[in-house]
Amino acid sequence: MESSQNADKKKPNQKRHRPAGRSLQDMAQLAVSASYRFCYYVGVQLIRSFKRYKKRLFRFAVRTRLGLQLRLKKRMTLIGRKFRFAVSDAMRPYRQVQRLRQSQEERLSLAEELGPKAVREEKSRMWKESLQLVFRLLGTVFNYVAPVVSFIILITLIHQNTNLQFALEVEYNDKMIGYIAKESDFDESEKIMQSRIVYEEYQPPLDTVPKYTLKIIDEEELSTVNAIADELIAASGNEITEASGLYVNGTFYGAVEDATSVRALLDGMLDQYRTGSEDERVDFVQDVQLSKGLYLLSSLVEPEEMEAVLTSEVAGEVTYTVVAGDAPTLILPEVEIPYLQLKALHPGIEESLLVGQEVLISNQVNFLTVKRTVTEVYEEDVPFGTEEVVDANYAKGYQAVRSSGVLGKRLVTADVVYVNGMETDRTELEAVVLQEPVNQVVTVGTAEPIQVLSSSGGSSSSSGSFIWPVDGGYLSCGINGYWGHTGMDIAAPRGTVIRAAASGTVVKAVRQYYAYGIHVKISHGNGVYTLYGHMSQLAVSYGDYVQQGQIIGYVGMTGNASGNHCHFEIIINGRFMDPSKYIGTYYPGR
Length: 590
Prior knowledge:
Layout: H1 2-114, H2 116-161, E1 164-171, E2 176-180, H3 183-195, E3 211-218, H4 225-235, E4 240-248, E5 251-256, H5 260-271, E6 281-284, E7 288-296, H6 303-310, E8 313-321, H7 332-335, H8 339-345, E9 358-366, E10 370-382, E11 386-391, E12 399-403, E13 408-419, E14 422-435, E15 440-445, E16 474-477, E17 488-491, E18 497-499, E19 504-510, E20 518-523, E21 528-538, E22 545-546, E23 551-555, E24 565-572, E25 575-577, H9 580-583
Parallel strand pairs: 11-15
Antiparallel strand pairs: 1-2, 1-3, 4-5, 4-7, 6-10, 8-9, 10-13, 12-15, 13-14, 16-17, 17-24, 18-23, 19-20, 19-22, 20-21, 21-23, 21-24, 24-25
């Protein structure tokens, strides 16, 4: 009994706990169900709204398209109607003439049946009708022609007005002195006027402030700055005269009333250097001008005084640059001074005269310097290079010419500048190779043997294996990158240093303008060579012994090259090897 009672007592407790657990689960289910219904409702509403607005947008697009089509159709219909009306209106005179002609023919036929009097009356009526029709047709034609004639007149007026331009009318000292395009022209004219005043007798006018008024004038009415300068001098009230002023590099040296003798002197100075060559140009180095205009009487000088200025000397150095083969006595015809004077200017010239040295000829130069430029065509020798054949059977230092070299020839066209008869500049315009040079071949022995390299990159010289020959750069084309490519191209900027990949003797140091261009070939002994092509400049000479890493030249693009790079070859017993197997494919740094 007690157990059953205890059981009965426990049951109410269990009933109180179960509802609590179910309520939490039910609440979670209710929350999930409510969230689902909310999301479903929102989604359905969004889909309905999208469909509703989609239909509205579609209807709007259809209405817009139909409206545009309708407007376009109406516009095209209207244009077509106007075009047909215009054609019909243009053909109306023709139809009127046809109808009148047909009517007159019918009436004339009836009149002929009635007798001669009726025919005369009908013909008189026909003339009146024809004249009336002609006047009406003329009126119609005028309606069409008048706009065309008006347009032609308008174009003519515009064309005429384009020859007109705006300008400034200059009033100076209560006097109109001319028209200028801009105010700076007046300032320039004023400077020209001031440059013509070399004495203090000039009295400026009371009113020196110019007044400008905008005007429309013909282009021909514009005044030059020199004309305005003349008017400024005339407006000053000073005593003036018409003369020719001398300007040298913009500086005024006076004016002469009769410039005939001065012009003759200037022409004579130029004629001294003229040779009659077709291509020569002779002129003064300075800007020399004789400008005709109005000048103050105080600015006038005598022609003899101006000629003395033109033929005078001023402080300045005249030098001569020594070239190969010159000697103190040999340069005398060039410098045109006595030998004693040359020794006085250069006491040690007999003991030392170096190529490129500037020899002082005079401490005085002419006031005017004459420059003669002439185009010359001449043949020039092209130096040959030296190819060395290394023979390990001979000791280092042994050399023997196997075959002599032959100089090449090229035809050069150049502009040569002579100043006072001495060459100062030479600009090559064109060069055509007439004969290619033939390199001399020299047998060279070497006493420093080198082990033959293996493709695995073994020792290449007594100082170790080959090194990357360029200070930087990158591999731009490997061996056999294209047909006939026998080495590795290392691209680098022009002037980048090129070094010897291994120690050896320079057997070729060639300056040529084809194939390898300027290039160096080094013998490392036992049939091992390296070649460095397309240089911009050499740093070694034939026969030099170079250490590994020594500078031998600089990157360029001479010869058969389209960009700045070093063409690097490794040759072993006459075979071109792949340089990448000995130096790698990238710059490892120094």
